[in-house]
Amino acid sequence: MQSSTGPRAYLICMRHGVASVAPDGDALGKFSKTHGGLDLVCAAPVVTVFGPHTTALLTLIEFPSLDPAREMLRSTGNASPDSPPVSALPETSWAVLGVDPPAEHWPDFGGPRGYAVARYQIQDWERFQRFVGLIAQAVQAYGGRFLVRIQKPEPVLGPADDWLLTIIEFPSVTSMRVGLQSPDFHDMVALGLGYRTIQIWGAAGVSPGDLES
Fold it and tell me: 9-204 has which CATH code?
C-alpha cells in the first residue's frame, strides 16, 4: 500500500454467482490504474463466515480518495480501449473511506493477505459499542488491523441501503481463517450485541504490492 496524506478509500465490487477467479478477474484492477487506483487488494471468491451463503467474486481496490473510487465504474460505459469487458463488471459496488490516519505499509509476509468484509445494520448503538471493543481485541489477537472501521458506504452500482461496512486486513490467509473461525470470534458475533443483521465474508488477497503494468 502506498503512502498518503489522508485516509484512503476503497472500492468494493461483488460479482454474484461467480465461484472461482475468472480469466478476467484482474480486469477491474488493471482498469483502475488509469483512474487513480493505488492497489488491487483482492480479487477472489468469498467464503461466507456469517449470514446467508453468498457465491460471489470480491474485488477490492485501494484509492487515494473517494472521488476516483466513485467515478471509476461510472466511466466504464465510455467506449475506451482500456474499459473492462462487460463480463468483468460487478452487479454491486460500494465506495467507502478508510481509517484516518491510514494503515501503515506492511512488509511482504511471503504470501497473499487475508481480508474480511462485514456489512451490518445497527439497532442499539450503546450495546454495539461494547461489541466493537470485543471485536477489536479479537482482530488484534490474530494479527489483523482495520482498513475501514465503521462507515456508511456510498453505493456505486446497485441500490442504496442503511448497512454499514467494515474491512479488516490480516497478514495472511491462514491468520484470517484462524481468526474468523475461532470460537471466541464466533461467540462474540453470535451474541448480536447491538446489530440487527450481519454478513461477514472472507477472501484471499493478491500478492502484496502496487498494480502491475
Answer: 3.30.70.100
